[in-house]
Amino acid sequence: MSTGNSDIDESDDGEEGYDYYYNSNEDTEMEPNDPHAADPEYFEFMCLSKEDVERLFNECVENLCASLPIKPSLAKLLLHTHSWNTSEIITRYKEDASKLLIDSRIKASKPSEIDSQAIRSAKSLPCSICLLSFSGEHFRALTCGHWFCKECWATHFETQISQGITTSMECQDCNLLVPEDFVLNILNKSSLREKYQQFSFSDYVKSHPKLRFCPGTNCSTIIFAKECQSKRVICKFCKTIFCFKCGSDYHAPTDCETIKKWLTKCADDSETANYISAHTKDCPKCSICIEKNGGCNHMQCYSCKFDFCWMCLGDWNSHGSEYYECSRYKENPNIANESVHAQAREALKKYLFYFERWENHARSLRLEEETHQKIIDRINEKVMASEGTWIDWQYLRNAAALLAKCRYTLQLRIPYADYMYNGPLDQLFEYQQAQLEAEIENLSWKVERAESTDRGDLENQMDVAEKLRTTLLKDFLSV
């Protein structure tokens, strides 16, 4: 498919179509000042250790204590319950300190009528939980004034910690939160104290909008970013790639909520879809059975040599410079007037349409991994036969890597397509993804036939595919 300026069409009223959007040279002749400005996936972040993050937390606590007359343990609790927003806490504290502490479940709404001094000086008092009598010094209470013996507090804490509850731990008789120093002063077992601090640290990280645990297996790295965006993060230690905002696998250009709904739907209906979605298809010309053994959707029948599209079984040449109609679901325009059962069948039909394309891209990615390995083996053979150096043949590896990147972007646009509502941006998105899909299939075709593909032609195809992928992400990457 060509993306040259010769393809630009102008309508009668003088407005250019989408081709102008891609082919205008107005902004392409000058290099951007910031090399990252042209990369929609660029994202600034840091990989931190647990010690680094603890220092960050301590600095936040110290800054808050320097501004407000509160203890460090309460400052930490306030920061945790307010997403570590120091300025908001200070503002609210100055407006109404009592209301802030009550709303944060640090201070009781009604002052305790029990004289704490009398409790502490008592020689013998019964605990209202275990009913055993102890001296007043053996009792502890929060600002709510609910006094219990240390053993009952310790048992309560042990039970909560065993369930993974730490920062949300409450008083045994009300919903007041228990601060960290209160817990650590009562717990005697070092294993419990260590587990409490471990769970608390995890809660603090999860509540901080600029921190995210790396989801890599056995990786203790914590990612810090100045903004919480659905951007790509690559852990420098375990190399795991994920979305900073939701912590799931990187899913651009689909937003976090949409990919979550899509994956849930796939998990619920995957068996049905897998049953319906066949792995083999008949050639539309000679009807011979064909199995897909490569990532490319440009198929050529080994019997009659007919070129067709794997997805829609249409003549490959008919795709031409038009965008793929086979990637666009055509809904029944009168479905809103149909019965509930008819609407449900239409919804299932639409889902299966997109699920088949989702699975097809996934299968293509797996098959192209095999192609990548074959390319590496082929390069080794070329080098051993003195047909060029390893560096001379790196363009083939780069082409395979770019193909995988583009294919992944295409797969992740499927959920967006399933949840579109026919707005003006949706039409642009359909056009962009179809242009990219066409160029990726051209790239895949050439990569799989790298021996006979001219290097200049392949590198030009790589450039076209990457520019289309970048344009798609730049316009639709969730921020």
TrEMBL record:
Catalysis: reaction(s): [E2 ubiquitin-conjugating enzyme]-S-ubiquitinyl-L-cysteine + [acceptor protein]-L-lysine = [E2 ubiquitin-conjugating enzyme]-L-cysteine + [acceptor protein]-N(6)-ubiquitinyl-L-lysine
Alphabetized PROSITE patterns for the sequence: TRIAD, ZF_RING_2
Region (Disordered): 1-36
One example GO MF annotation: ubiquitin protein ligase activity
Pfam families for this protein: Ariadne (PF19422), IBR (PF01485), IBR_1 (PF22191), UBA_ARIH2_N (PF26000)
GO terms for biological process, alphabetical: protein ubiquitination
InterPro entries named among the record's database cross-references: Ariadne, BRcat_RBR_TRIAD1, E3_UB_ligase_RBR, IBR_dom, Rcat_RBR_TRIAD1, TRIAD_supradom, Znf_RING, Znf_RING/FYVE/PHD
GO CC annotation terms, alphabetical: nucleus
Intracellular or extracellular location(s): Nucleus
CDD domains: BRcat_RBR_TRIAD1 (cd20344), Rcat_RBR_TRIAD1 (cd20360), RING-HC_RBR_TRIAD1 (cd16773)
Residues annotated as domain RING-type: 123-330, 127-175
Sequence ranges of Acidic residues compositional bias: 7-18
Enzyme Commission number, as recorded: 2.3.2.31
Keywords: Metal-binding, Nucleus, Repeat, Transferase, Ubl conjugation pathway, Zinc, Zinc-finger
Family: Belongs to the RBR family. Ariadne subfamily.
Name used for this protein in its record: RBR-type E3 ubiquitin transferase
Gene source species: Argiope bruennichi
